[in-house]
């Protein structure tokens, strides 16, 4: 009697340093879902903009989770899938925490701080963004079937060039840092009752995304803000101690050599 065919494992396209990839990895580990890791270089070779990848994920972002019957190209949806919940059935508190998290432009915190502190970055990053914008328009011309999505992505980069204007970036950084501190205050207030997870009784999607957010606070040099808030500090220690944290490869600091290794396909 022939053995039943095994369903292929999900394939996760992701990048080591990508914030939203970390959310996907953490959710999949927490959900006990084994996956095939497809690590791509989003910085040097910019694989996410190559036509084959664009046909998988027209947003040209990571992560992307390829399932036998569908493709999920948003980290929020991947987290909900991994933890066995749906947007339609999710409880109100979890939805509020997810909406709050995904309404915040994390890249403006990450790169805004870098540009505000580093004069060289204020010169180089806008030039890099403009180079990427032009490359997207060139790809639009070479790939007529994908022209619309390339042009839309080029418009996103035009917006980033405006957002990271060297003259305004210090103010942008201050704004995003103040907003982040406000989130920490809200988390502290919620956790003061001693709860172990954001939405009791069980660990869920809200814990996934806010764990990665807290890691980003450390990444951008705001870790001391966590320690000022006792309930939040307790929660952060507990999240870092979970068996999922290390396998999900959540970055609390920049790993330069691993980043380079990922670009070279050896990390």
Describe this structure as you would to a colleague:
The chain has 267 residues and is mostly helical. The protein is built from twelve helices and four strands, in the order E-H-E-H-E-E-H-H-H-H-H-H-H-H-H-H. A four-stranded mixed sheet has the order 2-1-3-4. Strand 3 (64-66) and strand 4 form a beta hairpin. Helix 4 (92-102) packs parallel to helix 9, helix 5 packs across helix 8 (169-191) and helix 6 runs antiparallel to helix 7 (147-163). It is globular and about 55 Å long. The model has no long low-confidence stretch (mean pLDDT 93).
Question: In brief, what are we looking at here?
Answer:
The protein is mainly alpha-helical.
Average pLDDT reading:
93
- The count of helical stretches stands at 12
Bin the strand percentage. Answer: under 5%
Choose one word for the global shape: globular
Largest sheet: 4 strands, mixed
Share of helical residues:
55-70%
- What class, by secondary structure content? mainly alpha
Low-confidence stretches: none
Biggest sheet strand order reads 2-1-3-4
N-to-C series of helices and strands:
EHEHEEHHHHHHHHHH
Rg on CA atoms, Å? 19 Å
Give the tally of β-strands: 4
From the N-terminal CA to the C-terminal CA, the straight-line distance is 43 Å
